[in-house]
Amino acid sequence: MPSKLHISPSSRSRSPILLLILSFLAISLLFLLFSLSSSQTRILSPYPNPSLALKPETSFLASLEDFLAEKAPRSSTVLQVTEEELTELDEKIFMRESERAYGDPYYPLEFPIRVYVYEMPRKFTYDLLWLFRNSYRETDNLTSNGSPVHRLIEQHSIDYWLWADLIAPESERLLKSVVRVRRQEEADLFYIPFFTTISFFLLEKQQCKALYREALKWVTDQPAWKRSGGRDHILPVHHPWSFKSVRRYMKNAIWLLPDMDSTGNWYKPGQVFLEKDLILPYVPNVDLCDAKCLSESESKRNTLLFFRGRLKRNAGGKIRAKLVAELSGADGVVIEEGTAGEGGKAAAQIGMRKSIFCLNPAGDTPSSARLFDAIVSGCIPVIISDELELPFEGILDYRKIALFVSSSNAMQPGWLLKFLKAISPAQIREMRRNLGQYSRHFLYSSPAQSLGPEDLVWRMVCNSLSVAKNFT
């Protein structure tokens, strides 16, 4: 008869304890594995905030809606500065700059550039953004030449993109080239967040001029402006019509411009200088043709040369009419009259994505928003402008993505088409690949991206600020 297994009372009493210990160890092990996994995820993520890993927003309207809904304060406080505080600030800035510039008045800056953002009254900032937001859907809100006002404001909205990035919480920012400081004596630069383009287009003429005068007085009353004469201040005046009535009083500031306007139609002599002012790209008016789009559209690009826009322009843009007369009806060439409305945007986008080359003659000024539409559409720009200064020259090599043609050559009968047809398929493919890589440099976004236009602005500033601050 087999013997029965004998379990002692002490063994039976230890079993529940053993199970409890094993269960605790198993739970601890699972917790440890979960922690390691989460930690690894955080280490691998390039963003301080996981939500920033999402696709950046490049639509001005969508970004503005989010900004006003989530980030715009209900009220702003404007600090009053006493004479004692002004004197103290002047001394602190003088001591700091003396230490940095010891032995070399043209001291180089180092990243990150430290920027103090003025807290201007709401009438210059948030109120203007709300005015635009509440009026951009009006279909009758047009300029004298029929262009929708909100499209022009979007194309020149660099003041919004730069300011929105600067004032965002550090946990939501990605740029390492610039940091916002809260103390004026710590600043390399002072940013003036006045929306000059919105005010120009959406306010009545006299109301706009009055607001310009108020902005001028507010800024020039600031102690930092008084001590430097504005040479370390940044002023966005990206639309050539904006701020015209008072900008001669702020000519020492670093202006953010669409171009230098060598025609003299928009900027008076002595107002803008390549040595101190910066050229920024227009905001593209069409959607980005990404890598997938570029690949899918390559076989569909059957148009040799495409142009859509106003065929007659003023001053430097007069060459357009001559080019139209020369090229109209030529095989492989599409030239269309068009404006910047929704229908025009769709037509331009379709046309550019079907074309190998996009014609970019001068507009009213040497530059044109069309250039940046072509770049993000994968359409190789053919730039015909003898006096054009491009954004971020010195950082970007435009010869890799664009063709430059002199006006005299372009006007010779048959010359331009013969030139374009002689470009090899291999060179075209290489330039289109380069366009795919360069597009990131012209896409404003929220949050601002490394090597995007916001980032390149501060890299350019770093190279030119020592000149600007000593410019007379």
TrEMBL record:
Alphabetical UniProt keywords: Glycosyltransferase, Golgi apparatus, Signal-anchor, Transferase, Transmembrane
Record's keyword annotation contains Transferase: yes
InterPro entries: Exostosin (IPR004263), Exostosin_GT47 (IPR040911)
Family: Belongs to the glycosyltransferase 47 family.
Record's subcellular location: Golgi apparatus membrane
Pfam annotation, one family: Exostosin_GT47
Coiled coil regions, renumbered to chain: none
Boundaries of every Exostosin GT47 domain copy: 112-418
Protein source organism: Hevea brasiliensis
Protein name (record): Exostosin GT47 domain-containing protein
Membrane topology annotation: Single-pass type II membrane protein
